[in-house]
Design a protein that fits this description.
Largest sheet of chain A: 2 strands, antiparallel
Order of helices and strands of chain A: HHHHHHHHHHHHHHHHHHHHHEEHHH
Largest sheet of chain B: none
Strand content of chain A: under 5%
Structural class of chain B: mainly alpha
Number of strands of chain A: 2
Structural class of chain A: mainly alpha
Oligomer: heterodimer
Largest interface: A-B, 55 and 49 residues
Chain lengths: ~500, ~120
């Protein structure tokens, strides 16, 4: 492995966390909107649309995609890019002001790692299922879509993704230059193919694939699932927010771009699943596109998944490496990424569990991330009034303004548990038990509010009223008063 | 240039009297140099003097990179405090903007509810 990759990654995980200056910000409004559209029209969007079709029909599905992504996107934006845009500091480094340095480590290992491994395993299995489907169609084989052949191909795909990610960020960037436009073309192609095979009236009449008896509950669950999908952008958009030039760009660029992209690709997945009676994209792509086009599209989407895995694994493992601090500093990048990929490979041995429980996984992780975002929004917007002391972020764990208790903001941890408890009280995605308010206000919105209120109260009592926690920091960007300017001159 | 001089004097100002002096500046530089030498085994880098309130600790055991990190943080903070202070790029989100954001979210949700009701 070349030294330059180690140097690239090491520089990015240390120097890359520093605040960006105005000249280094890359994206204006349209640039950032386009970046988000490209991100959202990714392979998993088809999967989300298909899974939505399990619960609701076309009109309700479009509504669920719209409402879910808007709510999820709004929660995610309040908990990430608003902060990173203003300061230009790396996302998880900035979160030290909310959770403490050790607290960020706990969150990265308990939430980001688990959510990341889950998502990337599902993407790997999607590749496995896609190529097994290609083989069944093109070579007349009869492999089971949940069998060992799927696991074997997934492991190969994850290995290839590791080869890409272990070669550093430049190769990922080069591959994505071709993949993102390719996925946009494929989405348009699928829309054309869909409407040559069916009409809007047929789509509207197509029933949901596996709805609940109560249609209102089915709709609420479809919305909640899409809220989870919207919030799952938190880590990526939080990181990208620092590259935007203005607050308006970071908020509206992500909001519009992700909503538009998710709606387009999700609607294709939803419509195709309803028309062809299959929620799983590899299962409907060949019947939709025919034996030649369908197989080619499927093969491309599967390949695109590999780069999606690599693109998503890179920031996740970088966050893990940063959170681990000196513990992983001397461990070489290919070994850290390799360890992570091995975890996804192990989970690939359970394709039925992972694919069947996709909905549970997205909803549950959405509930956890909603609580995290509630805590962050309350801390940054309410308690700190958007003011953070940047040099204090880089002090050793447990020291400085953001030292809290041994590097952990106990108030934030209590608040996260409270938020997750509220989510589970209103909607338990494991047992599918719900309470009445769930069908009106979702479970994520109350989780955000409870987490935010508990954090504000607990952090005030534990730190703020004692003058701890750096809540009275001066604003580094505050324009100097005219008198001081004159005195300096 | 004059601003730079004033900043340098402030950097070495006594915490008790608030005044700076060439002797104090020299003493602080020497002490910081010794401290840095003890920690990293090298001389202080230009523009990267360690001060008591900037005791940063990058999570690397690679000493040149740790040193580069500190210098870079100091340089960037200087830019943010001076060149970019008051810049619209770093404005806080106002209550009005927040209300607009929430309003748009609610409006889209209502449109979605309307679509579902069709």
């Amino acid at each position: 492995m070349s030294e330059s990759v180690e140097a690239q990654v090491r520089a990015e995980s240390t120097l890359g966390s520093l605040p960006l200056t105005k000249d280094e910000r890359l994206w204006g409004f349209w640039d950032f909107t386009w970046v988000n559209v490209s991100l959202a029209i990714a392979t998993w969007a088809f999967l989300i649309g298909g899974a939505t079709a399990l619960m609701v029909g076309f009109a309700e599905g479009i509504a669920a995609l719209l409402i879910g992504n808007v709510i999820g996107g709004a929660i995610m934006l309040l908990g990430g890019p608003i902060m990173t845009q203003r300061y230009g500091v790396e996302h998880f480094t900035l979160l030290r002001s909310v959770l403490g340095k050790v607290g960020v480590g706990i969150m990265v290992f308990c939430v980001v790692l688990v959510v990341g491994v889950g998502w990337h395993t599902i993407l790997g299995l999607m590749v496995g299922r896609a190529y097994v489907q290609v083989s069944n169609q093109a070579f007349g084989t009869d492999y089971d879509l949940n069998g060992t052949a799927v696991t074997a191909v997934s492991i190969v795909a994850l290995f290839v993704a590791w080869l890409v990610v272990s070669r550093g960020p430049k190769l990922i960037g080069r591959l994505n230059r071709y993949i993102a436009p390719g996925l946009v073309i494929i989405t348009i192609l699928m829309i054309v193919m869909l409407f040559t095979q069916t009409t809007l009236a047929d789509l509207g009449a197509a029933p949901a694939l596996a709805p609940f008896d109560d249609p209102r509950l089915s709709f609420a669950m479809a919305v909640e699932f899409n809220v989870g999908a919207g919030i799952s952008w938190w880590q990526t958009i939080g990181s990208y927010g620092r590259l935007t030039k203005t607050p308006k760009t970071s908020i509206w660029g992500a909001y519009i771009g992700l909503l538009f992209g998710s709606m387009i690709a999700g609607s294709v997945g939803l419509a195709a699943a309803l028309v062809l009676g299959e929620a799983d994209p590899p299962a409907w792509m060949v019947p939709l596109g025919g034996p030649v086009v369908g197989v080619l599209v499927l093969a491309f989407v599967a390949f695109a998944n590999i780069t999606s895995i690599a693109s998503a694994v890179y920031p996740t493992v970088l966050a893990i490496k940063q959170a681990a601090g000196r513990l992983l500093d001397q461990v070489r990048w290919p070994i850290v990424t390799g360890g992570y990929i091995v975890c996804t490979m192990i989970l690939s041995f359970f394709p039925v569990l992972m694919v069947d429980e996709f909905q549970l996984f997205v909803t549950l992780s959405g509930g956890v991330l909603a609580s995290v975002c509630g805590v962050i929004a309350a801390d940054y917007l309410v308690l700190r009034r958007q003011v953070i002391d940047v040099p204090e972020l880089f002090k050793p764990a447990g020291k400085g303004s953001y030292g809290f208790h041994g590097g952990v903001n106990l108030g934030a941890l209590i608040a996260m548990v409270a938020g997750i408890s509220m989510f589970m009280y209103l909607y338990n995605p494991i047992t599918l038990e719900t309470r009445e308010p769930f069908t009106f206000v979702t479970a994520s919105i109350p989780a955000v509010l409870v987490a935010g209120v508990v954090h504000a109260v607990a952090t005030h009592l534990l730190y703020r009223r004692r003058g701890d926690g750096g809540f009275d920091a001066p604003d580094v960007f505050a324009a100097k008063p005219a008198a001081e300017e004159a005195r300096v001159r | 240039m004059e601003d730079q001089d004033i900043r340098e004097k402030r950097r070495f100002a006594s915490p008790l009297t608030g005044r700076g002096s060439p002797r104090r500046a020299f003493l602080v530089t020497v002490l910081l140099g010794i401290e840095r030498h003890a920690r990293f085994g090298g001389p202080p880098q230009p523009g990267g003097l360690r001060t008591a309130d900037k005791d940063v600790e990058p999570d690397v055991t690679d000493e040149p990179l740790a040193l580069e990190f500190e210098n870079e943080l100091e340089r960037r903070m200087q830019i943010l405090r001076t060149d970019e202070a008051g810049d619209p790029a770093h404005r806080r989100v106002t209550l009005k903007q927040f209300a607009a954001f929430v309003g748009v979210t609610i409006a889209i949700c209502l449109i979605g509810a309307g679509v579902a009701a069709l």
